[in-house]
Amino acid sequence: MFGKVMVVDDARVVRVSLGRIMKSLDFEVLKCEDGQQALDTLREHPDVKLVMLDWNMPVMNGYDFLVSIREMDEHKQQPMVIMVTTEASIPSMMKALAAGADEYVMKPFDIEMIKSKLDLLGVAYQQ
Predict the structure, then answer these.
(1) Pairwise CA distance, residues 86 & 46, whole Å
(2) Residue ranges making up the domain that contains 37
(3) What pTM was estimated for this model as a whole?
(4) How many whole angstroms separate alpha carbon 57 and alpha carbon 114?
């Protein structure tokens, strides 16, 4: 195993498909339906290495989740965050990156796109 990854998306099909991709790369996958559930899960699993995060979700959106975790104790190791979203505008991308996102993936995605982002971030995975 290469560590825990959390897939956060309100669409079940995305959680399943992205979860399958990450499992095939030998990650342990945790799935959440919204940002609040993701915050709770992160508190229970502080060893999460990577968060794959949708922007538009009910209860708490991805941007608010991102801001919340980046405001946590700076001495605590925080997971890397890849936004995986349909928010395609340059201002949205810049806003997410400025808030602390490490990378940005546009939906729809495939395994090669995910692997290329992991490579950019230096995240090891099963080849």
Answers:
(1) 28
(2) 4-120
(3) 0.93
(4) 21
How many CA within 13 A on the CB side of residue 87? Answer: 21
The answer to whether position 8 is within a domain reads yes
CA distances from 47 to 78, 79, 80, 92 (A): 9, 8, 11, 28
Contact 41, 32 (CB under 8 A): yes
**CATH number of the domain bearing residue 89:** 3.40.50.2300
Q: Residue for token digits 């992205």?
A: 18
pLDDT at site 73:
67
Helix (H/G/I), strand (E/B), else coil: 43: helix
- Work out the average pLDDT over 4-30: 97
C-alpha–C-alpha distance, residues 72 and 124, integer Å: 25
Residue 42's contacts (CB-CB under 8 Å, 6 or more residues apart) are 6, 48, 51, 69, 79
Residue 125 belongs to a domain: no
In a domain, 31, yes or no: yes
What's the structural domain count of the chain?
1
Question: For residue 82, how many C-alpha atoms fall within 13 Å in the half-sphere facing its CB?
Answer: 24
